[in-house]
Every structure is written in structure tokens, then in C-alpha cells.
Predict the 3D structure of the following.
Amino acid sequence: MKGLSILGSTGSIGLSTLDVARRHPDRFRVMALAADSNDGRLLEQCREFRPDLAALASPDAARRLEGEVRRLGLPTRVLAGEEGLEAVATHPGSGLVMAAIVGAAGLRPTLAAARGGKRVLLANKESLVCAGRLLLEAVSDSGGELVPIDSEHNAIFQCLPQPVRPGHCPAGIRRILLTASGGPFRTWSQAAMVRATPEQAVAHPNWSMGRKISVDSATLMNKGLELIEACLLFGIAPGQVDVVVHAQSVIHSMVEYTDGSVLAQLGNPDMRTPIAHALGWPERIESGVESLDLVAIGQLGFEAPDLERFPCLRLAREAAEAGGTAPAVLNAANEVAVAAFLDGRLNFTGMARVIDSVLQRHEVQQVMSLADALAADAWGRDAARRELGPSGANPA
Ligand SMILES: NC(=O)c1ccc[n+]([C@@H]2O[C@H](COP(=O)([O-])OP(=O)(O)OC[C@H]3O[C@@H](n4cnc5c(N)ncnc54)[C@H](OP(=O)(O)O)[C@@H]3O)[C@@H](O)[C@H]2O)c1
């Protein structure tokens, strides 16, 4: 029986993780759950899984949850704030930690899990983009493990020779082919994208995901963050990662070897596959995902990404090449821009413009400590807010 903590249990990845865990009551025990402010959904999860610990970042929401947990006589301690999230990440009964908080807010608890020697199931790519080397060092120093949950990186992990050492590229790899669905605006003109609404941007054709990552998929910033993630996780240079648009999301990514062999991982676009892989690894366990029907799919299509219409991918590649604080600043500016777009304060194409301006003003430095990463994150957020103007609005 393995103990499992979930950071971000109320979100899309959190729910899929609980769906897989629910299928294996004799294999996984849910020990600790954490979220931001959704006390209603967390209470439901506490009723079903009866974890030892639950935490909410919001103190008010944590107070409400604690009142309900007491009233129902559940065996769950409730904590609040940053301390609560770290307690979930380092719960002594959990060897497995799903890191699925969205954004750089996940950095501290994910790092705490890595320092605690856990197997970190990494969905929260932003924490790696912000503080990649620190996170990899923490895993290696503590003797922990890192298994990627992003379907692309999980696919690459599966296509590489085992064991995969985080941050180290095995011999014989020529390049990584990172597949991209192209998002909901793959075939839209630049002029149409200017008027794209948040509702249109979050309506992803293949994947059902949280709002922030859905917008990132629509701008292709998600692929850019994944490019940075791939370089860090697999110890490979940005020039060895090629992005290929594959609208069907059946091939989740590929590894090309020096002899010309290309290995791919295929499956239905359902996050329960990488989640089950990472939970069970090296064993294979049931995920609830249906078999892939290749005959019904018929043909697989591929195209090159259009960097003119999707400049975020170019910006992310430039940040990957610059290294140091550049990826953390890119990520921070993106988080501010996406929030402004979702609030109706910035139009769709304005997001890339804000991020570009912030990066142009940034002087890249080395990231030697968590303080350096947090300072870069704060600088990027501040610079992006300035770019949006005093009222936070920049509709042009
Ligand atoms: N969804 C996917 O298919 C997918 C695929 C690959 C990678 N990922 C990555 O997985 C992560 C989560 O994505 P998602 O789609 O599951 O997002 P989501 O549905 O928006 O869920 C986000 C989760 O994070 C929690 N959260 C947000 N801010 C927090 C804070 N400050 N402190 C503590 N918890 C906080 C939310 O809690 P509340 O509910 O209380 O707000 C929720 O549980 C992202 O990094 C994303 O890039 C997602």
C-alpha cells in the first residue's frame, strides 16, 4: 500500500488522479490533499477518501473546511496557507506526491516534496520552468524520484532507455520531437485571433483541462513551457527539441536516436494514462482509459508550427536558450497576461506582446537559490503589470 498526497486535488489533474486512485483501493491510500480555496470540493474528497490531512491556501476557506470536517466527525486535520501546503507535500505517510497546483504557486510545495525524498509526479511544469536546476538537485540530493505527468514528457520518459535520470541525457539521442495539438486556433487567421474570447480559448479540441493551461495551449505558450521543461528534465539543448503540430493528439511525443530510429508513445488523449503510468511505474496499472482505435483514426497528420501567428513559442525558445532567470520571467509575465486575458483586460494577441516587452527589458542572471527564482518571478510579474498599465488594462 502506497501513501499518496495530491497538491491541487480539486483541479483537473487532481480529479483525474483521484479517479485512478479510486480504481486501486488496495494499492494507494490517499493521505493528504491540498488546494487553494475550493473548500466545497475538498470536503467532498475528504468525505470519500478520509485523508489524514487537508490544506487550503486560503485561510478563510480552510476555516470553513475545518468547521465541516468537525461537524461530520471526519478523521482529517485541516491546515491553512503555505505551511499547510508544505505539510501535505511532506506528509510522512506519503511516498507519492502529485504536484498539480497551477502556476508558480506550486513551486514551494513541489520543492518541499522533492527535498523530502518523495516520488514527485510533476504536472506543475511552471515550478520546473521557474527553478529547474534547484528542483532537479533537490530530487537527486534526497534520493527522490521525478516522473513527468505532462503527456508529452511522460511519453518521452517512456521512449527513453530506463532508468531515466532527471537532468541527464542518455547516449545516442539525436533529438526530441515534442508534439503539439495546435490548440483551438490552429487554423485561425491573425485577424480572427485578435478578437478571440476567453470562452473560445479554453475550448480545447482534444483535452479537458484547467483554464490557465487551456489558454496556454491556445497561444502555444504551453508548448514553449514544455520545451523548457523537456530541456531540463532530459538534459538536452533547446536546439535538439523540435515542435511538431499533430492535431489529433494521438502521438504524445517522440525520441529520435542517432541511428535514425524514432520511438513514439501513442494513446487516447486522457491524462489518466500518464497519471497511472507515474503512479504505478515501473509496473503498469489500469487507468480507465479506453483502447486506442487506430482503424477509426485512419491517418495521422503532422505540420510545422507557425511562429508568426503563435509568437509565444518563439519567445519561450529564446528564454530556454538564454537560460538563468529568463524562463522564470517568461513564466511570470505569462501568468499575469493570461489572468488579464481571462478577466477581459487584454486581448488574445496582446498576451504575446506583453511577454515580449517584459523579456526585452530583462537582464538575465543566474538562478543559484530559491530566493533568486522567487525574485525573478516577482520581477516578471511586476514588469508585466506595468506593461498592462495603471488600470491593468491594455486592450490594444
Ligand atoms: N489539466 C491537464 O490536462 C494538464 C496536463 C498537463 C499538465 N498540467 C499541469 O498541471 C497543473 C494543474 O493544471 P490543471 O489543469 O489541473 O489546473 P486547474 O484545473 O486549474 O487546477 C488547479 C489546482 O491548483 C489549485 N491551486 C491554484 N492556485 C493555488 C494556490 N495558490 N495554492 C494552492 N493550490 C492552488 C486549485 O485549487 P482551487 O480549486 O481551490 O482553486 C486546483 O486544485 C498545471 O501546472 C498544468 O500546466 C495539466
Q: What stands out?
A: The mean pLDDT is 97. The longest strand covers residues 28-35. Residues 8-14, 35-38, 57, 85, 100-102, 105, 123-126, 150, 207, 209-213, 271 surround NAP (CB under 6 Å).
